[in-house]
Amino acid sequence: MASFTKQEIEEQSPIWNLFQNGGVVLFRKPAILDEATNNLTRNGYRVHAIDCSRCADEPSALFAIVDSLKIPRYQRIGLDGFNDLIRQIEFDGCTGVVVVLIAFHRFWQAFPKYACHILDIMANHHRSQLLVGNRLLILAQSEDPSIDEQIGIIGGYKPIWNSAEWLRKNRDL
Predict the structure, then answer these.
(1) Which of 112, 119, 142, 173 has its CA 20 to 30 A from that of 153?
(2) Helices 58-68 and 112-131: crossing angle, nearest 10°?
(3) Measured distance CA(131)–CA(127) in Å, rounded
(4) Could you give the CA distance from residue 150 to residue 11 in angstroms, rounded to a whole number?
């Protein structure tokens, strides 16, 4: 899939909005996330949801993502290996690939530095995949309405909230 066409921008503006400001978009309310993922699925994106609340340690988060993407993996995995494996995401037969990190705040609370590295790796792959015509997007759902301030810069950008929750008041702040 090439870059967004003018027609796609006009007809699929909610999807275009997700891609505009970096590879990681934050969501608080599950209903808004569900609406976005349903829209992405309807438009040919392959959506992979990972429940981060089930990740008991650092490697289990990496395994959950890699397994969801159906990438063959090693018995052990670290951040360098994860980075290498993410390069193998398959984009054939779809508009793009979306990784949804549900309850990301739970993993963030337990392993903040490691969680930041995971987002950084994914955000960097978002950018490199766009350069070769592939669309990779990461959606992170968090019950923490100010997690963006804690995460800081990843992949060269600060993760942003989706357009429905961009305003602080829409996240109950």
Answers:
(1) 173
(2) 30
(3) 7
(4) 34
Query: pTM to 2 decimals?
Result: 0.94
Tell how far CA 166 is from the center of its chain.
Answer: 17
Which two structure tokens, joined as six digits, stand for 129? 């995949």
In a domain, 64, yes or no: yes
Residue 4 within a domain: no
- What range does the domain containing 66 cover? 17-165
Question: 85, 118 in Cβ contact below 8 A?
Answer: no
Considering its fold, how many domains does the chain have in total?
1
User: For residue 143, which phi and psi values (nearest 5 degrees)?
Assistant: -80, -10
CATH of the domain at 87: 3.40.50.300
Return the bridge partners of 26, or none.
140, 161
Nearest CA to 101 among 56, 51, 66, 170? 51
